[in-house]
Amino acid sequence: MRISSRSGRVDVTAEPRADVLVERGPAPVIEPGRPVTVVGRDERLVVRVPVGVDLVIGTGSGRVTVRGSLGAVAVTTSSGRVEVDRAQRVDVRVRSAGVSVGEVDGEARVDTLSGRAQVGRAGSAHLSTVSGRIVIGHCVGRLRARTVSGRIEARVDGPAPDVDVETVSGRVDVRMHPGVHPRVEVSTVTGRVHHDLPVGDDGRVAARTVTGSVWVTAGAAP
Length: 222
Fold this sequence. Notes:
Blueprint: E1 2-5, E2 10-15, E3 21-24, E4 37-39, E5 45-50, E6 55-61, E7 64-79, E8 82-96, E9 99-114, E10 117-131, E11 134-139, E12 143-149, E13 152-156, E14 162-169, E15 172-176, E16 183-187, E17 193-195, E18 204-211, E19 214-217
Parallel strand pairs: 1-4, 1-6, 2-5, 2-7, 6-7, 7-8, 8-9, 9-10, 10-11, 10-12, 11-13, 12-14, 13-15, 14-18, 15-19, 16-18, 17-19
Antiparallel strand pairs: 3-5
């Protein structure tokens, strides 16, 4: 399904249903063999869709909220906070706003120039921002996180971590699952460096900053 709007808030709720219901906005366009589309202009859009549907949302400006359990979710907006509850995969591209993603079974990808980027749980994650904090509550697989100015916090679980996180100005805190023995590469120019993980061949953890401390541990960061 595709939803587009020039400006205005977009609210989508996935629920047990077989059709698409537009509670606020223009009627959906339904053509055989093509995705259902809703095309708005400057008004708020409120749409209810079936659970598990794939969703593409594009808007020039306006907050985007996606509730319920979806399939693959892709959101593009210039300005306006984006919130996604749960999906199989997530790809969010924002120019200037915060992004909050709850649970993603597969990959969670978030790119924003300014604003906090947060993922509660993901199979793998790739997050980047120029100015803003990055928070990953739980990541099982591969993790990539980059920011120029902002703190990075991540919790990584799994027997063979693949972690590469970096900020220019900000602190880095990475908490690992107890019992893992990865290769650890940590560095900072100005700040403290600490890791207490036993070193081995169980994957790789790289954490870097120029200004700020780096903390890689199996316990809670201070």
